[in-house]
Write a structure and sequence with these properties.
single chain; 149 residues; mainly alpha; 4 helices; 83% helix; 0% strand; transmembrane helix; transmembrane; DUF3021 domain-containing protein; membrane
Length: 149
């Protein structure tokens, strides 16, 4: 049962991020499709985005696991690795699976810039969530220490 609980906890941590990445990718596919006059997204495209998003979420999970005990250098290296791999996966998958119809170069550049902004926002959310968790634990420790004197 302990193994099941660990696996379940792991899934509970990764799945929301996978869903967020999937939704973001599908949103931009939908916007570009609408610009091009296409009003549908293929079920296969949805499945492909889910798989790519799951891989990105896994890489994020393992890169920033035990965030508080990582050194600044390790956080920096993990951030760079995660960013590069995420870009390769998403851009590569978009090309391989033809998620976007033939688009003008300016739109491709715009989508790439938006991807970079999304990656920066996700990295900042990792920082904020860990900061909130650390502050919460510190406050609980202070409260515990003050009541048990």
């Amino acid at each position: 049962m302990n193994t099941f609980n660990k696996f379940y906890k792991f899934g509970s941590q990764v799945k929301p991020k996978m869903a967020l990445y999937s939704l973001g990718i599908v949103f931009f596919i939908s916007v570009v499709n609408l610009i091009k006059g296409v009003t549908t997204v293929s079920i296969f495209t949805l499945l492909e985005t889910c798989i790519v998003a799951f891989i990105v979420a896994l890489i994020e999970h393992f890169s920033f696991k035990n965030y508080d005990i990582l050194s600044k250098d390790k956080k920096r290296k993990n951030t760079i690795l995660w960013t590069v791999v995420t870009n390769i996966l998403i851009v590569g998958a978009a090309i391989i699976f033809k998620w976007f119809p033939i688009i003008e170069p300016w739109l491709g550049v715009l989508l790439f810039i938006i991807l970079q902004c999304a990656i920066i926002a996700m990295r900042y959310s990792i920082y904020v969530m860990n900061l909130v968790d650390t502050n919460d634990l510190n406050n609980k420790l202070k409260k515990y220490q003050s009541t048990n004197k």
